[in-house]
Design a protein that fits this description.
Helix content is 18%, strand content 41%. It is α+β, with helices and mostly antiparallel strands.
């Protein structure tokens, strides 16, 4: 992470997890699909916390993987709401990898997700005004 980048600009820290051998691709690096799923899990957690409802992903865009991770590296995922609709929220996510024996972090993935809040019958639920970005 760059010195000039403020943690607050990244949003909330929503996931901190260690990459394990089962998370590797056939070439020995961390699988991009695993990174995407961690970003989605973290973003869903943020939306559920803000809305008080289930949150399901209905769209994912703008993914890039500017860095690499290896087994044993820690992934820190940050999420920030950038748009709130009547029943949906759009969240940007950024994932930073940190080698086990280092304090240095490198951005390894980022992307944007759109979620819809659902009620107990799995129908779209209006997002409360207090949950808006």
């Amino acid at each position: 992470m760059t010195e000039t980048m403020a943690i607050a600009d990244l949003g909330d820290l929503v996931i901190r997890v260690t990459a394990m051998p089962t998370d590797l691709n056939p070439y020995g690096g961390v699988f991009g699909g695993w990174l995407m799923s961690q970003l989605a899990l973290g973003a869903a957690s943020l939306v559920s916390r803000l809305t008080g409802h289930k949150a399901v992903v209905v769209g994912a865009t703008d993914f890039t993987f500017p860095g690499t991770m290896h087994v044993g590296d820690e992934l820190n995922v940050y999420a920030r709401v950038v748009r709130t609709g009547r029943t949906s929220m759009t969240v940007t996510t950024r994932g930073f990898g940190r080698a086990r024996a280092s304090d240095d972090q490198t951005e390894v993935a980022h992307g944007t997700f759109t979620f819809v809040a659902l009620d107990h019958d799995d129908r779209p639920q209006p997002v409360a005004a207090g949950a808006r970005a």
